[in-house]
Amino acid sequence: MSTNLKLRLFKGKTHADGTHPIQLQFYVNGKEKRKGIYFCHAKDWDEKTCRVKSKVPNSAYINNLLSEKYAEYERELLKVLNGESQQADFFEIKKDLTLDEAMNIELDRFVNEEKPMTRDRIRAYANELKLYLNSEGTYLKDIDYKWFEKYSAFLVTNITSGTSIVRKGNIASTAQKKIKDVKRIIEKHSASPLSKEVKSFRTKAKKPPKQKLTQAELISLETLDLKEGDLITIVRDIFLLQIYLRGARIGSLLMAYSNQFKDGRYTANNTTGKNNVDSKLIPKAQGIIDKYIGKYERLFPLYNFTPDPNLSEFENKRNATKHKESCTSVVNKYLKILAEKAGINKPLSSHIARHTFARMAIDKINNPMVTMELLGHASLAVHQQYLNDIRKEDVLDQAADDIFG
């Protein structure tokens, strides 16, 4: 007896991350029924095989899951059609989930897909939600606009105990990222769709200005008299190279090998840094590279993680991420010391290198299409907002000069 059971990518629904649900479609008593199994992007779905394309990360895991679910549902559906069972459990509408249950489902998925960075980030959100917003007693169906207002206010507010801050409030951009991630999880696991009002919710907290160095401050840092080989000198060279390589991400440079710098160019490894771009080596950049090339396993001696063969791939990925974060903390610690030595009255950090290059770029180039490519932004809208944030602080600085000048 035919079950009319089919696997398909249902493009009638799109999740917040752009994926569509992979569904099992079948008929009981002439009525169409559908059951969600997984999700993927349309470009990753093979219509001929009704499976995820092999080039997709973890495609073997996903396709094996689809095959197992197909066989399981086929067996149960045959029981229903043969009268052996009135209704199989998996045909029933799933129970309403709490927010905590939905978060835990996602955490398990990230383990299966070997995404330790994402899992650690979402786990931190889940712990906050459980501790401060009673996620264990909050059902997805009850989450509305007012709940997101409450969550947003919590994210940007310092939590104190007496005179001590036990949890520092997030800046607006970090709060919005958390809201976006949580909203995506709610949308994926909720039995009812989110309202347009909830989908468009954004935190109302004020964005802090993007800090960057002036030309004079950059020269002051470049000309500091430091002892070669000292850690503080290495950190200064890493920061300057970030600027010279069009605002390269700190993680990318920490992990870069010497062979990525040859023939007058830096070849980016785009698996190690968001918006990481190839770049021509200007003379100042080449001077720094010549000091370090070939001396260590990587260009700079800070990042030296080695996978442990006794640990799983997931655990090694997580440990690698923690090691990179630890190295970045060392860089930022010494940048604060460098700022004091150079007379720079700003909270110097590795990310300021990117803002500094952006400021230099828009001073010289008026074409946003060109500066977008230079900075590696994925869309013009994102790039324009980034430039507006950069320019805003300059306007405020000039206003202060006019007042006190």
Automatic annotation (TrEMBL):
Location of the Tyr recombinase domain: 208-401
Keywords: DNA recombination, DNA-binding
Name this protein carries in UniProt: Integrase
GO molecular function terms attached to this record: DNA binding
Pfam families: Arm-DNA-bind_5, Phage_int_SAM_5, Phage_integrase
BP terms from Gene Ontology: DNA integration; DNA recombination
Taxonomic source organism: Mucilaginibacter lappiensis
Entry annotated with the keyword DNA-binding: yes
Family as reported in the entry's similarity comment: Belongs to the 'phage' integrase family.
Entry keyword annotation includes DNA-binding: yes
Tree of life domain: Bacteria
Lineage: Bacteria, Pseudomonadati, Bacteroidota, Sphingobacteriia, Sphingobacteriales
